């Protein structure tokens, strides 16, 4: 389980990460990452006074989207638990204050834990290796 300070709960935070963050798609999931340095100075929803963030440097926060297309409730909950556990192990690699949303795609319902881990690592590697301030959308090449 993710600690309270590492959970995304507000719809507004999910929207910021998905609409304004960078995206990396894989066969099993799509990862949206909004770095804290991209959030600085924004007035449209991100403020320094989050109810679940302690004083000081905010920690990275994660949210999950697992739709009914993934499978019945038992399968969706299994996928969500697996993703939560995988992201918790990788939170230290994320920039402080960043928002991450992991959206499971339908094939995730039949995927193994290792397959989910592989896709999550590949997506995070792609998102974290590129510079968001570089011209041309931060392709990093």
UniProtKB/TrEMBL annotation:
<dbReference type="GO" id="GO:0000049">
    <property type="term" value="F:tRNA binding"/>
</dbReference>
<keyword id="KW-0255">Endonuclease</keyword>
<dbReference type="InterPro" id="IPR000100">
    <property type="entry name" value="RNase_P"/>
</dbReference>
<dbReference type="GO" id="GO:0004526">
    <property type="term" value="F:ribonuclease P activity"/>
</dbReference>
<dbReference type="Pfam" id="PF00825">
    <property type="entry name" value="Ribonuclease_P"/>
</dbReference>
<keyword id="KW-0819">tRNA processing</keyword>
<dbReference type="InterPro" id="IPR020539">
    <property type="entry name" value="RNase_P_CS"/>
</dbReference>
<dbReference type="InterPro" id="IPR020568">
    <property type="entry name" value="Ribosomal_Su5_D2-typ_SF"/>
</dbReference>
<comment type="subunit">
    <text>Consists of a catalytic RNA component (M1 or rnpB) and a protein subunit.</text>
</comment>
<protein>
    <recommendedName>
        <fullName>Ribonuclease P protein component</fullName>
        <ecNumber>3.1.26.5</ecNumber>
    </recommendedName>
</protein>
<keyword id="KW-0540">Nuclease</keyword>
<keyword id="KW-0378">Hydrolase</keyword>
<dbReference type="GO" id="GO:0001682">
    <property type="term" value="P:tRNA 5'-leader removal"/>
</dbReference>
<comment type="similarity">
    <text>Belongs to the RnpA family.</text>
</comment>
<dbReference type="GO" id="GO:0042781">
    <property type="term" value="F:3'-tRNA processing endoribonuclease activity"/>
</dbReference>
<dbReference type="GO" id="GO:0030677">
    <property type="term" value="C:ribonuclease P complex"/>
</dbReference>
<comment type="function">
    <text>RNaseP catalyzes the removal of the 5'-leader sequence from pre-tRNA to produce the mature 5'-terminus. It can also cleave other RNA substrates such as 4.5S RNA. The protein component plays an auxiliary but essential role in vivo by binding to the 5'-leader sequence and broadening the substrate specificity of the ribozyme.</text>
</comment>
<dbReference type="InterPro" id="IPR014721">
    <property type="entry name" value="Ribsml_uS5_D2-typ_fold_subgr"/>
</dbReference>
<keyword id="KW-0694">RNA-binding</keyword>
